[in-house]
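INFO batch 0412 | record 1 of 1 | parsing
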Amino acid sequence: MASVFQKCKTDEKNRNFPCAKNRCGHSWTVRYREPDGRGGRQREKSFGTRREASDYGIRVENDKREHAYLDPELGKILVRDYAEDWLSRRAVKDTTRANYVRFIELHLGPHLGGKPLASVTSRDIEVLLKTWIEEGLSRRTVYHTLMIPLRSLFRSAVTEKRIPESPVAHIVVPKIKTKRLDEKSLPDGKAVRAIADEIRPSWAISVWLMAGCGLRIGEALAVRGADFEAGHVRLRRQFVRVKRAGGYKAELAPLKAREEGEWRDVPVPTSVLAAVRLHVERHGVGGEGYLLHAHHGGEVLDSNYRTEFKAAVRRAGYGDEPWTAHTLRHFFASSAIAGGVSLLEVSRWLGHSTIQITADIYGHLTPDAGGRLRSVMDQVLTGASVVGADHEDRAGSVLTTGAE
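INFO prediction complete | emitting tokens
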């Protein structure tokens, strides 16, 4: 059991010993052992009053019985040091690791890195989120992207019994709605063809793959000639840019929202298949069979591709447009949905993790939805067969009352 005493009356080495006053005002000490019986390490903590010391001693003993005891030393580690240790133990993709490193170095470390882990409060987290926004980060980045590693980090600290509860747990994060696509801001088929004509000839096939099949940049860069079969392209991996000792390089990684070994098939239009065949005849393939390759035959970095794509947009005469390579993926999705292809199929071919994502971005593009609604409501309101004969007179009277 924890013991409560004053060192001024019991410890000869104490500078106030011996103290004869009953209410001397000197501090009170709690002495207790950590869990593990007599083998547990002995600890002490001082308080200003006997009540505070006694309450702490009772709480420690209760925590030990309920297996909720926290070693106070574990919570003294600095947030920066714990974050680095936490990340070193995470089995994550290289791209995720790179994102987490940036999160720690650029966003977490400068603000909370020097604080002991156990001293971080919910108020600190609220101030941190507000500071990130004031520094220019978007609310979507703050309340979605950065909250993922922040929650995970403090959740691990709770699991390891470094802190009693996560300071992030009770933070109310506003829901950020997915931004609907403005289809009027997209290029048309003529503009897509112009961009394909102006980009580096050996990379033009990428424009057709992204605009005709909805591929992401990294997916297009990782397509091989052997991936095409029976009118489909089977996507297995994507190229991602990772930082290595000698700089940045392209490395293969699983598809987004997929685990290693998972794949998806996407239908390939006849015109795109013809472009693939023509590309292979004129430019060949890279060392590993990739359609897109650098001059030396190696992989293409997505950053280099983005630069070339923007230059092609300018050369095609659309320099005032905010189009990026990802815009071609939007072109594919909006064209497919406007043409009557179901959201479910488009979502599957795009590789979205849920159909809700597809619906939030592109759902408003469903063809003639307004026309179908008007037709259905006209039938109901005018007493057509949808309503039934028994309701014809009443429906008609409702619609004609105002006119009379």
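INFO post-check: The mean pLDDT is 84.
INFO record closed
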